[in-house]
Amino acid sequence: MKWSVSLLGAGLVLVVLRDLFHTLWHPTRHGGLSRLVMTALWRLSRRVRPRRRVAGLVGPLAMVTVVVMWAATVVLGWAIIYWPHMPGAFRFAPGSEAARAPSALDSVYLSLVTVATLGLGDIAPAEGWLRVVSPLEALVGFALLTAAVSWVLEIYPALSRRRALAVRLALLREADPTPRQLDNTAGALLLDGLAGEVVRVRVDFTQYAEAYYFHDGEDRASFAAMAGFAGALAERGQRAQRPEVRLAGELLAAALRDLAAVLDQRFLHTGGAPAEVFAAYAADHDGGPARR
Length: 292
Fold this sequence. Notes:
About 70% of the residues lie in helices and about 0% in strands. It is mostly helical. The chain folds into 2 domains: about 1-145, no CATH class; about 155-285. A two-stranded antiparallel sheet has the order 1-2.
């Protein structure tokens, strides 16, 4: 019976490690629990009015919630591992109040102290296998802290790239270049550069799926609101006379189709054409599509 309970705790720890791996390090980054938490908070924010004020908090709040969930589950899992063997398999410091506490409380306390790498020493494992398992918890705690910091440092550059592309598209919308103005080498370079930036955003949505749940704020910096205008620029390039401009327009259109496929497959599930996907993307982020 003791070992069955300990195995249950080990299972909880493994669930967290798997979710951590798939959220941060797996190439496709399909986190299970973390994705459910973020999706739930995003959908909940859609029920709140005014939504724009709340939506800006969803991404950061979701990340904090996921990290707290990971930490709490790790602490609980290791506490369950210790609990059936408490107090017989542990040594208590002379005069320690911990020896008088319930074994469940001692287990949670030991797990918290170990995962935080404090090493107070008033409770120490006495059996050989516990002397191996306990340092492993400290290693997991250190890995969890490192992973949380890395996650923050990775996600915000991806958001900056997306918002920079949105501002660039907003400036182009204000300039409103005609097909004739794009029908030159500069126009080809412009469309080719936009295609490259769209591809980077597409990769960001693949590698950092949680970036979807960050609201970009004003329409000028919202890629959700500006993606439609990128499609309009691609169409203007495709109607140009010069072959290099038509090629650049085709590249931009292909990049947008690829991005739309990723957004639809992972988040929106409309099953529609790219224009419909981008319209749904704009609606999901409370942004209107740019005029064409």
